[in-house]
User: Which sequence fits this backbone?
């Protein structure tokens, strides 16, 4: 008998596909939240594996803060076009105007928290009962404890004490009207697993994931891409650096890392060498307090 | 490189957090910013070293209440394997959490304090691991540094444990003397401190323990999750059954039966993402196309014609109750098994399993939170079950409250009445 052996990436892939198909089977109006980052790009590839030659049983939904990297937006539009799948974009800008929300000001101003308003509005507008996202448990300790099917109440809130036990590969997606479920198919993947999968699948990424020369502000020891959106202080110094982005979020809260990695092997080598965690290296939003992510999740964030 | 999923159970006192911290630290999975966060919290151990137990520190909600809410998942990898740790709190009231973490684990690490020997908690963790069908147990006799690395102490504990372990279903039990605090036999060996121990370190064992044969490749089970019908010009008549091979193997030409209808057909192709595969085996997610136009929908199961899978509505199961409100006979619940959901009634409680001794306690009139009981269940529609002991991937189910939709119980099929 031939030896039947499934490589770890195949096992992770099989698990993620199974989760996506459970979403398709259990929910009436699911959506895939697409950010233009590598994790959601990975989700799209997994959806192709799960549902081709059929269409995706959900649209791609992007909550656009208006502060995204233009490279990521371009990539998003091209991807939706190439896939022939539906893309829904909702803008934080519109929510701010309509609801007269006040924008955070000052040094750490970011629309990261305002995103949640637009997300909840979009969920309500389309009646989404499940939203697939690319969060991973290795990212952060609040995420380490979240379920693969994470039930949120009418306000999108996560309550760590009321989580449903999740056993075997059985996912309980039953919710009341108005509630919804956030689903995380790559919960068990690490940053390195994602990169190794991208390499194996030869997935094209927005070019900002690879080294390029960019004007950056040095802030709290981190390199922030210079843009019109970022808060500038008189003594800020703009420097030109060879950088890449390890995560891609808003330009206001995602830091670059110095890098010479011009291809995926270079990126993987740098991650193996790195002494700083992914969110630690690149996220300004988590640094604000030790429980920043836990608090945001309780408020309806991913 | 493959994956090993394991569970660690234990109290704060027996050094579980230190052990996990040590595994992560010594395999260089801890990043500088994470260490810095601990250092800046000012909490170090007496030697002025980073307290490794803090690496597994939890949520604010937990610290405020001094409790651990539930299972936390942690990840590390070596060149040989990716490891997924389900870290479950060990208190008796957290049986529910341990059951949850154990359900997906292939190996269980059970910590014994060398000064205290086999305790009630050791037995409880071993029994739960055994009930959940975990094939590999590793008994880490910890804090060997505090008993002078004494071989006699170790041997005595091993003997005591073996005496107790005769009742367990585990396929393989391994003993390792360790000091999580000092790092003996965690990643490196213990030639200096315990030259009398000739076995592998914990990490060496975790890297070597054979897990590929833990997948059942005998009984072919393919629960259909979703039907792919593109209805495009190119794929006008295409009908693909999407699902996961939870056990067994499938290839083109295999004769299959679709349950519960009993219709038969032949596999036309096995595919994934539009690519044809030679064969699918557990735990692959694939698409099956059949030669004949049979009526198949979500919840049906495609099995090989030669395989014996009975359709049953009544069965006995071991149920772990996970909700504050006790379960009483006659209670109606939703039952979810693979991609099927049906109503069911718990007709009778046969006995409660004492998870500290494995004794059966009879005359039980309700199942409380964290109890594990043998019950009789009748489902509203037919289910396609295997006994949990025969096929772990097709013998587990969850119970869901009909009004709150909370997951309130986990069950393992014990006997099936056809």
Assistant:
């Amino acid at each position: 008998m031939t030896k039947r052996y499934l490589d770890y990436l195949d096992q992770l892939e099989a698990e993620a596909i199974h989760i996506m198909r459970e979403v398709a089977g259990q929910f009436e109006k699911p959506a895939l939240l697409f950010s233009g980052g590598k994790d959601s790009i990975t989700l799209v590839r997994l959806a192709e594996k799960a549902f081709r030659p059929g269409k995706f049983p959900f649209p791609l939904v992007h909550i656009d803060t208006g502060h995204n990297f233009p490279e990521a937006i371009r990539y998003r539009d091209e991807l939706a076009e190439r896939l022939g799948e539906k893309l829904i974009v909702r803008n934080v800008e519109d929510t701010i105007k309509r609801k007269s929300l006040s924008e955070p000001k000052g040094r750490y101003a970011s629309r990261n928290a305002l995103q949640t308003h637009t997300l909840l509005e979009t969920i309500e507008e389309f009646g989404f009962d499940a939203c697939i996202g690319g969060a991973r448990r290795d990212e952060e300790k609040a995420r380490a404890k979240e379920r693969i099917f994470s039930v949120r109440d009418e306000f999108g809130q996560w309550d760590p004490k009321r989580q449903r036990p999740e056993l075997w590969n059985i996912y309980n997606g039953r919710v009341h009207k108005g509630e919804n479920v956030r689903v995380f198919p790559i919960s068990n993947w690490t940053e390195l697993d994602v990169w190794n999968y991208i390499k194996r699948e030869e997935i094209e990424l927005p070019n900002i994931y690879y080294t390029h020369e960019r004007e950056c502000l040095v802030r709290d020891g981190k390199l922030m891409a210079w843009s019109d959106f970022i808060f500038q202080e008189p003594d800020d110094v703009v420097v030109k650096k060879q950088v890449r982005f390890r995560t891609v979020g808003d330009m206001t809260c995602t830091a670059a890392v110095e890098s010479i990695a011009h291809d995926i092997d270079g990126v993987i080598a740098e991650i193996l060498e790195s002494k700083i965690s992914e969110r630690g290296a690149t996220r300004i939003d988590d640094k604000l307090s030790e429980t920043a992510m836990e608090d945001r999740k309780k408020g309806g964030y991913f | 490189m493959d994956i090993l999923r394991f569970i660690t159970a234990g109290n704060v006192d027996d050094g579980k957090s230190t052990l996990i911290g040590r595994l992560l630290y010594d395999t260089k999975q801890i990043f500088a910013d994470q260490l810095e966060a601990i250092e800046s919290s000012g909490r170090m151990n007496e030697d002025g070293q980073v307290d490794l137990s803090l690496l597994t520190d939890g949520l604010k909600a937990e610290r405020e209440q001094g409790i651990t809410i539930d299972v936390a998942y942690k990840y590390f990898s070596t060149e040989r394997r990716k490891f997924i740790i389900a870290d479950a709190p060990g208190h008796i009231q957290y049986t529910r959490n341990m059951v949850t973490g154990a359900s997906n684990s292939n190996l269980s690490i059970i910590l014994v304090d060398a000064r205290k020997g086999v305790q009630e908690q050791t037995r409880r963790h071993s029994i739960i691991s055994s009930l959940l069908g975990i094939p590999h147990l590793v008994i880490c006799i910890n804090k060997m540094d505090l008993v002078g690395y004494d071989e006699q102490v170790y041997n005595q504990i091993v003997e005591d444990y073996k005496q107790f372990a005769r009742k367990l279903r585990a396929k393989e039990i391994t003993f390792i003397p360790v000091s999580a605090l000092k790092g003996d036999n965690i990643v490196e060996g213990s030639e200096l401190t315990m030259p009398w121990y000739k076995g592998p370190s914990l990490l060496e064992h975790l890297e070597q323990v054979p897990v590929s044969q833990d997948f059942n490749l005998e009984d072919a089970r393919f629960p259909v999750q979703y039907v792919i019908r593109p209805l495009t010009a190119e794929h006008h008549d295409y009908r693909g059954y999407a699902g996961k091979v939870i056990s067994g193997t499938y290839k083109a030409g295999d004769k299959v039966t679709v349950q519960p209808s009993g219709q038969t057909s032949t596999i036309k192709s096995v595919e994934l993402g539009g690519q044809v595969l030679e064969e699918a085996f557990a735990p692959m997610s694939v698409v099956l196309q059949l030669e004949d136009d049979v009526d198949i929908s979500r919840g049906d199961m495609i099995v090989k014609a030669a395989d014996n899978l009975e359709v049953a509505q009544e069965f006995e199961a071991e149920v772990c109750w996970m909700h504050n409100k006790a379960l009483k006979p006659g209670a109606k619940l939703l039952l979810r098994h693979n991609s099927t959901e049906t109503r069911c009634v718990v007709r009778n409680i046969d006995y409660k399993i004492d998870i500290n001794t494995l004794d059966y306690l009879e005359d039980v009139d309700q199942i409380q939170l964290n109890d594990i009981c043998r019950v009789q269940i009748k489902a509203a529609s037919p289910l396609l079950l295997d006994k949990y002991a025969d096929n772990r991937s097709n013998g587990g189910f969850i119970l869901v409250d009909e009004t709150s939709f909370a997951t309130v119980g986990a069950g393992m099929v014990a006997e099936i009445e056809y």
In short: Chain A has two domains: 8-193+291-298, 206-282. Chain A is about 30% helix and 15% strand. Residues 153 and 179 of chain A are 5 Å apart (CA to CA).
